Amino acid sequence: MSNLIYANRLERLKESLSKQNLDGIYITNLTNVRYISGFTGSAGSCLVTMDSQHFFSDGRYLTQSKSEVKGFQCFIGNESHLKMMANNSGLISGISIGFESDFVSVNLFENMKKAFPKIQWEKTNRMVEELAAVKDEQELDALRTAVEITDQVYKEVLPMIKVGVTEKEIANELSFRYRAYGDGEAYSPIVATGSNSALPHAVAGERTFAKGDFIVIDAAAKYAGYHADMTRTPVVGRATDRHREIYDIVKEAQQKGLDGVKAGLSCKDADALTRNHIDGAGYGEYYIHSTGHGLGLEIHTMPRLSAVSQDVLKENYVVTIEPGIYIPEWGGVRIEDDVIIQKDGCEVLNQTSKELMILN
Ligand code: GLY
Ligand code: MN
Ligand code: MN
User: Fold this and answer.
1) For residue 237, is pLDDT > 90?
2) For 5-59, what is each residue's pLDDT tens digit?
3) How does 296-310 read in b/e, with b if 16+ C-beta sit within 10 Å?
4) Which structural domains are found in the chain, ordered by start?
5) Closest Cα to residue 246, out of 151, 330, 163, 162?
6) Ligand 2 centre and the CA of 295: distance in Å?
């Protein structure tokens, strides 16, 4: 990402600070540190005030931070980040500095108060996340590539699924290819066959595929830090009327979601698009999760498309639409795509077919 993009992110963050009457923010969540500074390492924090940006990390990241961090003065040392901040940031008494209350531990908060007793520390919530939810063109390109890899790998691995092969063997094939083509897997692939497919977040294990099994394959790539997320549910050997009935209901519900989402729609209403269809078909009690979530530098990020969400969809949010029906002890179906929210609808990124696939 270019220097200009980071300059723009800082400007938007400062607008948010000024709206909340804050003089600055101390960012400790690593994903948010990455979004605002470009740093991809495992230990770093940032102080952003109206007229300065400071980045803190330790000796392991001396070289990496020089090449990655954009628009910040970097302080690298083996003292605590707070100590480096106290020695270098010139923070004055009486100002209000925000912190990410969802992520700061009690211990860190105590240390912040000790290191800066005269600063007013103010809780903030989702300040960087709200900026990051609206994707710019380069982020959209990274997400498009992550989804392209996901589609391609699905096409390559699907023919390897045969009676007698294990869930884990297929999960390993998927992961290997995500790493070969991109950064690696976006999350541990879910390959859940037979009754395991009724567990929305099953862990791929030693179970072998058998005729009559639905297989929930929820697997995707990460590219340039950005996460795709896709689920398809083929059936092995033959599809009974029950397989077809449940599959069709989920497919129709997912289409209702794709057809209905657009900028300005509340995420609660977005959830209802898929849920009402499954409820109406009599399977509501088996739809045991929400409709979707935001994607970006994390696999699950804002907004949440759920019945209790307060979020509203905005242009260039990237979200999943992923209804499912899960019948305990029998099996389940989920169909999941990634979409870019637009003014009057959405662009569906995944190209993998959603017709019921029967694997022989
Ligand atoms: N792959 C996890 C999810 O769909 O949310
Ligand atoms: Mn998902
Ligand atoms: Mn998924």
Assistant:
1) yes
2) 999 999 999 999 999 999 999 999 999 999 999 999 999 999 999 999 999 999 9
3) bbbbebbbbbbeebe
4) 3-132 (3.40.350.10), 137-359 (3.90.230.10)
5) 330
6) 8
Q: Across the beta sheet with 226-227, what order do the strands follow?
A: 184-185, 221-223, 226-227
From the CA of 220, give the closest atom in ligand 1. 1
pLDDT of residue 92: 81
pTM passes above 0.85:
yes
Residue 46 · residue 13 · CB < 8 Å = no
Q: Is the CB of 229 under 6 A from ligand 1?
A: yes
Beta bridge partners of 57: 76
**Predicted pLDDT at 340:** 99
- pLDDT (mean) for 58-66: 96
Token duo for residue 177:
């290819």
C-alpha of 257 from chain center: 19
CA 14 to centroid of ligand 3, rounded, Å: 34
If you compute the radius of gyration of the chain from its CA atoms, what whole number of angstroms results?
A: 23
